[in-house]
Write a structure and sequence with these properties.
Shape: rod-shaped
Radius of gyration: 52 Å
Distance between the termini: 135 Å
Number of domains: 4
Largest sheet: 5 strands, antiparallel
Helix content: 40-55%
Strand order of the largest sheet: 2-1-5-4-3
Structural class: alpha+beta
CATH superfamily of the largest domain: Histidine kinase-like ATPase, C-terminal domain
């Protein structure tokens, strides 16, 4: 009885297992049908490959269209026939995929017409019809590869251009934090240390360079403003070492003005700026020389021509036999001729002195001021005595030694003293004194108690179109050229001239001079 029950149980169990197996088989068949249908008709390029030998087991319609072979042709081929690798390389790669060491590859695949296309292959092991295969999904990346190569080429070209450029260049990402490219010229220009060069954080380099400029705050503010805008900028910056740089900056823009970053270039224009400065200096010098020439010509055409005209007219009248002139009038004419001749002679002397001194470089040497003044006064001692002028010299011993060109210094002081004598009445006073203005500069003044000047005369003393020549107290000849010459010589000696004067109150002429020799 027990045996019958056991047999019944086994039969039921056997039936249950058989039913389960049938269901499993049915599901497997359904799954294979689904897989086959999906595999065959899917838009993606698909292959089933034997990983042991590289034979293609299955191929779908998309693969047939892509490679240009029929499905049956593909299933009779080895993957090495379309892969540009050797069979050994193919087996090696697919073995890695089988062992799941690597399941993504990029290969050049050969089409039926022998053209090559770049593909990206994703492979993974799969059990199919009781065998282990590699299920490969293939994507055509030919266009992407072309774009990638083009991008790499353009990037290499850009990098080569930047590195070979004579200008110092750096390219920075749009968020400022990352430096993309830098050339050796920038490293050399700013003497960037190794730790700055190797640090990709561009803010570190920005702060370092900013501290090399004369205005770090403005440098950083300008940089931050440009990073947040699409402006193109060109300006000049100055470094604390004296260099002047031309700075150019522009955004690196993509489609729809998308900001990818910013390029900065720097060019050392110190020599150019110095050359421009030298050109301006020489132009100013030429202009000054030209103005002085015009002044000389104006004086010659006015004063000298006037004096010579008087002489010519007077001598003509005196030599005319038909003109009846009394002895008294003849003497007056002769006196006038003498004065005009003296005026012309003095004017010519001063013009010659001007041309001799104003266009030469000063020969600065150590001089003793007391000797200079005594030599000048010795030439004017008769005029001083004739007017009974009281002469006062107040120059302390510590201010006696100066550095100057002796000819220039004598000309300036002689003109000031000569003018003071001319315009100071009898029993007047002339004072020559000095004052310390700084450690190496003091002033020399010539003050008189003479007739002084009106404001109009004083304001136009150096106006070449306004002639200030006047006759002295005792009819002494004066043409105004001396002061023009003195002003030029004082400026040539890096000094300044000041004049204080009131009508009937006297005048004071003061100029500054260095007590020490200054190298330029």
């Amino acid at each position: 009885m027990k045996k019958i029950e056991d047999d019944k149980i086994f039969k039921e169990l056997e039936s249950t297992i058989e039913n389960y197996i049938e269901k499993i088989k049915k599901r497997l068949i359904e799954s294979e049908l689904i897989f086959n249908n999906m595999f065959t008709n899917h838009d993606s390029i698909m292959l089933l490959i034997n990983p042991d030998n590289g034979n293609i087991v299955e191929a779908n319609i998309s693969a047939s269209k892509f490679y240009g072979y029929s499905i049956s042709e593909l299933c009779s081929m080895n993957i090495s026939e379309i892969n540009n690798l050797t069979l050994e390389q193919v087996v090696y790669e697919y073995t890695n995929a089988k062992n799941q060491k690597n399941n993504s590859f990029e290969f050049p695949h050969k089409m039926s017409d022998e053209t090559l296309k770049y593909v990206e292959v994703h492979s993974s092991p799969i059990m199919y019809k009781g065998n282990n295969y590699l299920f490969s999904i293939i994507n055509d990346i030919t266009d992407r590869e072309k774009l990638t190569k083009e991008f790499k080429f353009k990037s290499s070209l850009l990098e080569a251009q930047i590195k070979s450029n004579i200008e110092a260049i750096v390219i920075v990402d749009s968020d400022i934090s990352r430096r993309l490219l830098i050339n050796d010229q920038l490293i050399e220009l700013f003497q960037l240390p190794k730790e700055i060069v190797e640090n990709d954080d561009s803010t570190v380099m920005l702060n370092y360079i900013a501290n090399l400029t004369t205005n770090p705050k403005d440098f950083i503010e300008k940089a931050k403003y440009l990073y947040s805008n699409l402006d193109i900028s060109r300006d000049e910056i100055r470094l604390i070492n004296g260099k002047i740089l031309d700075r150019y900056s522009a955004p690196v823009l993509g489609e729809n003005n998308e900001n990818y970053g910013r390029i900065w270039s720097y060019r050392d224009i110190t020599n150019i700026k110095n050359a421009e400065k030298e050109i301006r200096r020489k132009n100013d010098k030429l202009k000054k020389i030209n103005d002085e020439k015009d002044t000389l010509l104006s004086i010659i055409s006015h004063d000298l021509r006037g004096s010579l005209g008087t002489i010519m007219q007077s001598t003509k009248l005196l030599s005319d036999k038909n003109t009846i002139i009394s002895e008294s009038d003849r003497n007056d004419w002769l006196i006038e001729i003498s004065k005009s001749a003296e005026k012309s002679f003095n004017l010519l002397n001063e013009l010659l002195e001007w041309s001799k001194l104003v266009f030469i470089k000063p020969n600065v040497e150590k001089l003793y001021l007391k000797d200079i003044i005594n030599n000048i006064l010795s030439l004017s001692i008769d005029a001083i005595k004739n007017k009974s002028i009281n002469l006062i010299i107040d120059i302390p011993e510590e201010q006696q030694h100066i550095h100057a060109d002796i000819n220039i210094l004598q000309t300036i002081i002689r003109n000031f003293i000569s003018n003071a004598i001319k315009f100071t009445p009898n029993n007047g006073t002339i004072t020559i004194y000095s004052k310390i203005l700084s450690n190496d500069i003091f002033s020399i003044s010539v003050k008189d108690t003479g007739i002084g000047m009106t404001e109009n005369i004083k304001d136009n003393l150096f106006n070449k179109d306004f002639y200030t020549s006047r006759t002295g107290i005792n009819g002494e000849v004066s043409n105004g050229v001396g002061l023009l010459l003195c002003k030029d010589l004082i400026e040539k000696h890096n000094g300044t001239l000041t004049i204080e004067s009131k009508q009937d109150k006297g005048s004071t002429f003061t100029f500054t001079i260095k007590t020490k020799k200054h190298e330029h």
